[in-house]
Every structure is written in structure tokens, then in C-alpha cells.
Amino acid sequence: MADFTGKVGLVVGVASKRSIAWAIAQATAARGARLVITHQSRFEEHVHDLSQGLEPAPLVLPCDVTSDAEMDAVFARVEQEYGGLDFLVHGPAFAPREELAAPFSNTSREGFRIALDVSAYSLIALSRRALPLMESRGGGSIVTLTYLGSDRVFANYNVMGVAKAALEASVRYLAADLGPRNIRVNAVSAGPIKTLAASGIAGFSSILDVYRQRAPLRRTVDTSEVGDTAAFLLSDAARGITGEVLFVDGGYHVTGM
Ligand code: NAD
Questions:
Q1: How far apart are CA 39 and CA 44, in angstroms?
Q2: Is residue 34 part of a domain?
Q3: What range does the domain containing 151 cover?
Q4: Which pLDDT does position 24 carry in this prediction?
Q5: How many angstroms separate the alpha carbon of residue 44 from the centre of ligand 1?
């Protein structure tokens, strides 16, 4: 398996032990990465407690991705502590709850703005700040998390599907933009997993049932499976891969009838 010894990674998007970003933190730390983990203020205590279980101990910082000042402060601290950055994990996603139940045609201007800002624009904003720190290391790797709802209609996924489509397009444009500096940008498209973010989607359990019945592997996936794939994309083993969306969904995305 990939070796992250001597590599420094920034993980944005941990809220609980069920967070996919937490599984990526565990997968990379277990292979030797030194991590900086950020959290929204409401998860501060929990993320500090969780992080104590990681070896080596990560630096834990606040970061709301709607705040340019908080993002600036995180990267200033990473530069001060480590002088560079090797990888970035992007996990934030959010849409106001009412947008994830109402008919899609009721999507509000404000709900659309918030969903796209937090869930898609933040990848661009964080990547831009990571760029000089990765360049100083001779390159880097960025991974974000997406869902098949970017491409197909899932009940109640609504504006989050639009945000994921924007996110995946951003992966391709960032890959083209940053590739000449040896920075790779990829997404993992995870199958449905019960996390805090998923609990905001009305009827989420029935999506899990459909995957159990129809995915080629006849089961759902867990966060460790997504974490291991993300670790692969972040590692030198994936050095030839960029602009890619890699599915970890038990094969559900290939199914037709
Ligand atoms: P989660 O609730 O654990 O993670 C979502 C994260 O977004 C949280 O850490 C939260 O703090 C963060 N976040 C929201 N608004 C933010 C803001 N303004 N600033 C900073 N952070 C903010 O749930 P998760 O399922 O682990 O979600 C992680 C990613 O995986 C999301 O992009 C989600 O869309 C994606 N994903 C999830 C599933 C699933 O079924 N759970 C499937 C495919 C993709």
C-alpha cells in the first residue's frame, strides 16, 4: 500500500467518526501522513476528541469554507508549521434542509447559492490557496467527494445534484489548470453511506435499499472503502491520474434496468 511517510495533508470536512473525510484521515495517517484537520465551529470539541486517537497527532484548526479569512488563516498556519503541503482532502457539502425535500422547481435563489458555494466553489477556493504550498513541494494531489446524483436524478437530492455536477466540472477544470504544476485533482464518487450529511436527505434509507438490491456487489459501501480509494488517489501510486471521477459504489453506476 501507498506510503505517506514525510507527506503533509490537509483534511477539510470532518464532523464525526462516520465522516468520509475522517476515514480518509485514518487511511493516510495509518500510512505515515502528518495531518492538519479542520472543522466547522459546531464540531470543534468532537473533532478535537476524535483527532486525539490519530498517530501522529494532527493539528486541528477551525475552518468554515464560506469565510475567506478562515481559509487564509488555515493555509498561513500550514505554511508556518510545515512549509508546504502534499495533499488536500475536500469534504464539505451543504444545502439548506428545505431544498432537500421540496419539489426541485421550488429551489430558492439563496438555497442554490449556498449549496453551490459550500459544496463546489470551496474546492476552487481551497485549491487556489493550496497551490503555492504544493508547488514548493514539487507538486501535490487533491481529492474531493461526489455522488452519482450529479448525473442522474435521485429523489430529494435536488440542488445537491446540481452542486455535485459543478463540483465534478471543477475537478476537470482544476486538473487542466494545475496539471502543468504537477498537481492532480480527482474525485471519489461514493455510494450512499449514513453520515450526518446524508441524514439531511429525506428518504435516504430507501436509496440504501435500492443499492443493496441492484448494485453488482449487492451491498452498500462503508467509509473505509472510500478512504482507501481516496488514499490511493492521493498517493504516488496514482501519479498518472488526474481529472478523474472514480466510483466506490459497489458498481451501482453501471446498472441499467
Ligand atoms: P459529513 O456530514 O460527515 O461531512 C460533511 C462535512 O461538510 C462536515 O464535516 C461539515 O462540517 C462540512 N461542512 C458543511 N458546511 C461547511 C462549511 N460551511 N464550512 C466547512 N465545512 C462545512 O458527511 P459525509 O457524508 O462524510 O460528507 C462528506 C462528503 O462526501 C460530502 O461532499 C458529501 O456530499 C460526499 N458524499 C457523501 C455520500 C453519503 O452518502 N454520505 C455519498 C457520496 C458523496
A1: 6
A2: yes
A3: 8-250
A4: 98
A5: 15
Please state the rounded mean pLDDT for residues 140-163. 97
Identify the pLDDT of residue 136.
Answer: 97
Q: CB 194: neighbour CB atoms within 10 A?
A: 14
Query: Does residue 102 have a pLDDT over 80?
Result: no
Three cell numbers at 244? 478523474
pTM for the model: 0.98
3 domain-assigned: no
pLDDT digits (tens, 9 = 90+) for 49-70: 999 999 889 999 999 999 999 9
Does residue 96 contact residue 114 with C-beta atoms inside 8 Å? Answer: yes
Q: What are the backbone dihedrals phi and psi of residue 218, each rounded to the nearest 5 degrees, phi first?
A: 55, 40
Q: Is residue 1 predicted with pLDDT exceeding 80?
A: no
Which of 38, 61, 145, 156 has the most ligand 1 atoms within 8 A of CB, as the residue to mutate? 145
Q: What are the grid coordinates assigned to 50, written together?
A: 476524535
Sheet with 140-146, edge to edge strand ranges: 59-62, 34-39, 8-12, 87-90, 140-146, 183-190, 245-248
Q: What CATH number did the domain enclosing 186 receive?
A: 3.40.50.720
How long, in residues, is the chain?
Answer: 257
Please tell me what DSSP assigns to residue 126: H
Residue 191 CA: which ligand 1 atom is closest?
Answer: 42
Q: Give the residue numbers marked as catalytic.
A: 147, 157
> How many distinct structural domains can be found in the chain?
1
